[in-house]
Amino acid sequence: MPKSNRTTVRKPAHKLHKPSGRGRVQIGGKSFYTGPWGTVEAEEKYDELVTEWMARRDVSRAMLTVEELALLYMEHAETYYQKNGEPTTEVAKVRAALLHLVDVHGRTRVRDFGPKALKDVRQKMIDAGWCRRSVNEYTGRIKRIFRWAVENELAPVEIHQALLTVSGLRAGRCNVRDLPPVRPVPEGTVANTLPFLPPAVQAMVKLQLLCGARPTEVCMIRPCDVTIGKDAVWCYRPARHKTEHHGKDRRVYIGPEGQDVLRPFLDRDPEAYCFSPAESEALRSAERRAKRRSPMTPSQQQSRKPKRSRKRPPRACYSKDAYNRAIARACEVAFGMPAELRKPDRHVQQTMADSGEAERQTELGRLKAEAAEWRRKYVWSPNQLRHTRATILRERYGIEAAQLVLGHSDPRITEIYAERDFAAAAKIMGEVG
Question: Which residues are CB-neighbours of 87 under 8 A, at least 6 positions away?
């Protein structure tokens, strides 16, 4: 997801004014003191001020600004976009859209916001280097914000109708960078990468390639979620999945080959995750100790200081980002990424210590550009495994079979995942044409 320099949109905060020891809240550019910090009196005064501020805001709908609308919508998004009591990734995306909206037109009144203002916000995203797809997605979120405003009688319906006239950026018809579509990863490339992955991630890759599950579904598999019956096929029903808020059921079927991959990881607490980063880290440490050339003496054990605790200990299960990073690091080793491209900052610091700052920055920029190009050529992502399985299923069994296995309700979505079999079309035309 594209990043923004600002991090949050929220209602006025209650803070300590250190010189006076009192609580303070800033509303409308003015400071209000609530009383001795930490007392019930201060909290009650703060609640009273915020309540009055919200009441004044509700009364003056006609004067509602885009910034005030952003505050209201953010409060709505934090409670609406949740699954199992936890916020989804959509909350962060909404926040990023709102921050760009407020940066450009925060003081504009909602009733004065129109298509031209929306294009101004879109241009800010383009200037920030976002790709065409991200620009269109976040522009759509801003349109939904104003639709919510109309639904809650915060804006006239004409505002949302006017914003709908702003069409999305078209490929090849706008001066915006376009990312290539996600392609299937060749199975040979996967096989070359596997030896450089931790055992748990190796199993995750093999399992995903066989069953075509989403990366998140593979990361969070637990023994209690897998139904092992008398049939030759196991059924995995994820506790959480992408379309559960639409009331859809998700089932991932695992055949004999996938069962052989998963079976060694089922011998654990039924509620525990099969693929654990903590277990992978413990195994890696054990392997390092086993490769030690000489045993550690008692005096060495006593003299060594205990290591600092990790700021971020391993999680109970892999996240899709950690899964992706593990594969990227393995690709860098498997396909021989040059050392200066893997760590360009260190390379520039060691080789250009006597050069000027401008020269170092120029060289660093060049190396980072080469590293990005190298990764585009050699590094693949877990989502490409799903595309690979979809393509194989389509070639062997047709688009409907691929749709069923991938769990798509619309075959047009499967078309995106499954590459067309152009070789079959060429063969047909060679026979009839």
Answer: 78, 81
Contact present, 164 and 139 (Cβ < 8 Å): no
CA diameter of the chain: 90
Q: What tokens does 52 get? A: 């009055």
Q: How many residues does the chain have?
A: 433
Q: Closest Cα partner for 405 from 217, 134, 142, 152?
A: 217
Q: Can you point out the beta strands (E) in 84-221?
A: 86-87
| Interacting residues of 265 by C-beta distance below 8 A, sequence separation 6+ | 200, 203, 274, 275
Residue 130 region by backbone torsions, left for phi larger than 0, else alpha for psi between -120 and 50, else beta: beta
Whose structure tokens read 């011998």? 267
The C-alpha angle with vertex 50 and arms to 47 and 53, in degrees rounded to 5, equals 150
Burial 5-30 (b: 16+ CB within 10 A, else e): eeeebeebebeeeeeeebbbbeeeee
Q: Which residues contact 3 (CB under 8 A, 6 or more apart)?
A: 96
pLDDT tens-digit readout, 244-279: 777 777 888 888 899 999 999 999 999 999 998 888
Structure tokens at 123: 């241009």
pTM here?
0.69
